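Reading is simple: each integer encodes one residue's backbone shape. An example follows:

___
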Amino acid sequence: MGSDHHPQQVSLLNYIAQGTEAQFSGEQKFLLEKANWAQYRDLCSDLSLADVHSQDSNLFCNILTSKILSIAECSIPVSSGKVKARYRVPWWNEACSKAVQAR
């Protein structure tokens, strides 16, 4: 009997000190609310499985995934991947922010 666990990819944020604020370099994400879905649909309909046909199922999957991602990159904008992290402590709340502003 095989394992029922699925592989996981963990990406830790890379810390980049910049001035007094910390910036984290994270993973870029597709901005789905700004996508050009008509263009995405048209490009997907132009995709032919004959272009990605392979006897090797892993190779077929990799080629198909690559084609779909390239279509997505053409029609869906991505985030910069940068996250500003000013207050990354569990005890910081809105009252703390207001107290700092009132100083």
